[in-house]
Amino acid sequence: MKDSDCQSQSYCRYAISAKKSTCLFPPTTFFLLAFVSATTQSIRRNVADVLRTLADQIDGPRLEHSSNNVRSTFHGNDAKVVLSRRVALLLLVIIISFAMAQQTIVHQLKILYYDGLTEGGRTVKRMHLEYETKNTSSSQPPPPMPMGISANNGTTDSDKGLSQLISDPVTSIFDDNNSTDDIIVCWPWSYSSDQWWTHHPTWKRSHANDTHYCYQKIQNERQAALYQAIYDVQFRHADCQNVFRRHMWSSGLGADFLNINRGLYQAAQFQRPFQISDAYPWHYAAGKGKYRENETMAACPSRDMYCFFLPLTKCPVGEASSENETLSNAFHLDETPLTIHNDTYHARDGKVSQCIFEYATRPQTWLWHKVYEYTQTRLNLTTPCMVMHVRRSDVLLHHKFARRYFSIAEYINASQRTNMITQDKVPNIFLITDDANAITEAVTEFPTFNWMYIRRKRYKADEGGWEQQTPSQDYVFEMTTLLSILEIVYGQSSFADFVVRSMESKHGRNLTVARVDEGIKVFDEANSKFRNISKEYSQLQEEKRQRKRRRRRQFELQENECTPLQRINDSHIMDMILFCHLFIPTQIGQIHYYRRYLQQEELTWTELSSTEKTTVTSSTSAKLEITQHRSDSDIPYS
User: Fold this and answer.
1) Residue 188's CB: how many other CB atoms inside 10 A?
2) Where are the transmembrane segments (predicted)?
3) 3-state secondary structure (DSSP) of residue 383
4) Which residues pair with 431 in a beta bridge?
5) Helix 253-270 and helix 221-231, axial crossing angle in degrees, nearest 10
6) Is the peptide bond before 384 cis (omega within 30 degrees of 0)?
7) Is the overall model pTM greater than 0.70, yes or no?
8) What CA–CA distance (Å, rounded) separates 350 from 333?
9) Does the pLDDT at position 264 exceed 70?
């Protein structure tokens, strides 16, 4: 057979068709791929030479052998030894080449390695993953509003690009000889990693910037083991025929997730998957009362916690049976310890509760992005600062479990007991509250503090009614602000407990916490009488305004241009105060000079000392003249 004839036939050609894979490979594979690419032509030529040699040397009966699109024709019984040797060599070449080709994952995933970055004094190896696809719909950024990802309704288009990554464990990214502890996996914000994070529970959120967000391995072995145990019963070994469900309480955020915590704890304890019930929409996603009926206002079509957070299980949302409700309400089961790898966990342990809370509230990518942007643009806090959580609204409407309102002064006193506020400095205070009156009270009664707070719509006192925590009815915005809270001083509040533990977990140290309700009976029906702490403040403000007007009418003023006077060392006078040249003619031929300053929105007049009078007189010389008295309407209000 001639070479030209052989090369014109398809069975004389050798080719390897590499099946594309989504496996992730270590950096050493790049060098291997470069070698394969450089030697591919040589391998193909060598295989073709082997086939031609076999075809030319062997005579006899026709024998066909086909493997991987390679077909060879052999003749003759007298060359069986040569045939076996050559075929063995050919098969070896094919196997080696095919194994190398299987590692070729180019055009599927681009991996960039960054070394030498430092964090906390240690070198961190970071890895940036960027998915490449020809499907333009998969590469679009997530929509600004949530798509309502639910455990039983599939995923969004932005998830489809990463769906194949679920089948391969994240550890396949790295060399077997390398540890994953110091590696951070990052994606651009334009891609959703919700599926990936759902099925990799032992990873946590790490760094984020304006373009990318990152994950890293959980270093705490107890926390990682607990998350893996929950994931196994909720996904890997979930028996959805034996699922039990809890309905969302639609109370405070902390109370709602205390309920979810118990469900996940019992799931791991009894090896039964847990899921939420669809008996009622969650009020943080759909509101209550008349707002709940308006589905267009809901955060997403499912109107549950899955509008914001990752799925808890693969089992569908549904109605809870009476048996499931009985199990769900058996709070005493929390007393039974959970054992994982000979390690014991207790539900009432604050750290265990915090771990489960962080697992249940893993935000979807779009929400994490919103929280990041919000904290960067809206929460420009002056630090160091103290954070004060003033919880009011419906806490006194809970009958025998009613909690009282506390004044801002009582919160300040509680902070002073723990030396958060000292005599030699005026702290910055980040005020977190659900009561609009609390903000007015704080900035008016304590003007020397730098009060910082989120500008948002709030109810006054309990005017919102029972468990109405979303006055704006913008549920995405409300959840974004809730998750943006970083530091806190608090009273009896489940949400405050979770936030404090989140801070301690993040920073690795204990925080100084002052309880305003320390040493008193927290829950008491008689606490409803403290409602006026919030409501009477607006009335008090009006009374102060009236007293201010009456005081101004007592003086008939002639006010010259205000010029700076030597500032008096008075810690009670605010920095923006300017001293004005004022005089009041009390009798003919006699002028009394006064200085005016604003303190706590009260206009106060104090007669100047003789030295100050001399300063005023010398600076104004003879320009002060008594003129016609102005009417009350001409007097500007401060």
Assistant:
1) 14
2) 87-105
3) coil
4) 388, 453
5) 80
6) yes
7) no
8) 16
9) yes
